[in-house]
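Q: My collaborator sent me two sequences in one message, no labels, and asked for predicted structures for both. Can we handle them in order? The first one she listed is below.
A: Yes, handling them in the order given. First sequence, followed by its structure tokens:
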Amino acid sequence: MTADLTGESPFWIIKREKLDQLLLNESLNNGVQIIRPLLIEKIIKKNDKWEITCNNKIKYISEFLVIADGSQSEWAGYFNLGPRKPKFANTISLRLKGLGEIPRDAVRFEFGFIKYGFAWAFPLRESLNIGLGTFINNGLLENQAINKKVIRSFGFDDFSNTPISKKLRIWNGFHSINGDKVLAVGDAASLCDPFLAEGIRPSLISSFYAAGYIDQCLSGKVDDLNFYTKKINNIWGRSMAWGRRIAQVFYRFPRTGYQLGIKRKTAPKRIAQILSGEMSYEDIAKRVIRRLLTKSGS
């Protein structure tokens, strides 16, 4: 299914390393100190402040803690932030030189090659980012024949690039992601999209609000960080709850998912609107429900 997307720029495509460098530079310009390499060995509460012991034998004292160590976070569980039993999506990604058969001004999503999963291709100036993921049977990504079939469908015959494998901690229910002077953001907080495994946007959103609520605590406007969890559950969790429901139907019963969603001409536009934040999964689900009710009543 192909569709033109309206608007000057439905969403931005940027190299991850450039985004990381931009965020790092902005942090440094605003007084952040980067200490690396550094391994945290112990964190304890002492005199209402956090005492952090690292492998350099220096103890750091902090008023607040932000847990941002990604999908493999050990500290989120240590502080009882997020679900007790995180749920993961297995993904692989690679970057290939050239654009293959993908137009420079187009993105492509595939929902038929990977059982219980998806594939996508995002073009850069002179290369293509390809990703594959599955939410149910993680062993499917180990099938090299299927992986090559997907890559070939994008217009490539060179399979020499080594893919990067990752386990992404996806949204899995409404949970507290803050404690007493501690909170989790991004993948560590299990905020990754349970339908498309997109994690950068929730990382940016949660980090923005985390900074805001910590600032309010420091200035005495609020007494704790509880509003942070409420905010993220409201602006992100409500949509992800519907995203998880949609994923459970779509990936387990792909024929039904195709008939209700992908088959429709508006499907590419809806995916772009979800990725850009213009629409939520709740909006999509309500449209599908109305469509089903209309059909059943006719």
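Q: And the one she listed second?
A: Here it is, processed independently of the first:
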Amino acid sequence: MNKSMNIFRTAAILTLCLLALLIFNPSSTLADEGTSATETNPEGVETILPPETILVSFGDQTITLGEFNQIWEQVPEEYKLQLDKSMVLDQVISEKLLIQEAKNMELEKDNDILEQIEKMTEQILVQALIQKEILDKIKVNDEEVLEYYEQSKESFTEKEQVHLYNILLETEEEAQAILEQLKAGGDFSEIAKEKSTGPGAAQDGDLGFLTKGTIIPEIEEVVFALEIEELSKIVKTDFGFHILKITEKKPETVKTLEEVKEGIIQTLLPAKQKEAFDNLLAELKGKTVIEINEEALK
């Protein structure tokens, strides 16, 4: 819970820093030239400062080097390119001064604020309970991963593919003439550009890689039986008359367990966590008597 609150606090400070940067330095990128955990003595030997070193004091308050470094370490690296430690430290000081002023005004005794604090406290407690009893405890084990992998192997299978080229013609007579021309040594790419009416004509008839099961049956039956660079017979479809060839084949492959393990975990984990959460609620409800005034609920 302390880690979550520290992250929340850092985010708030970071927001203030970025806002100040945009307002006062709209085009500047500040170097990281602030407080270091080391200092150099006259002999040139670096001395490591302990975390309890007082970094800044104001009024009756202090900020230690360790406290500040915890905040700085939680600043994302990409933001550190825009912010220096001095700016972040200034915002930490500002936050503490604002908090102190709120206390001086006894705002923590205001009923509305107390109600908000209570609600936030309750939310944090619920989040902490879920973190401790669900998120930290519920994991997907190797046996569950393997079982899912074996049962879902088809979804991890990449079916056979061919790199397909196509010349589409309107009549069988025209297709027969073109096929003879190709068999006599005609250039498939040039003829596709000049004669084909199909998709990919401008790209030499290239349709790219197509996967088994995604092509119309009349064509699929032919192309997956072709050898590399072999011309097909004329294939009639609803679109016209095709002359086909393939330039490359990719065999069917199955992804290994290691390749898909993380994806399987992310697939199984939410349902497993939800089941644990539902069980936790059922257990808690089973420990107490819950009486609902159904009439008042209407």
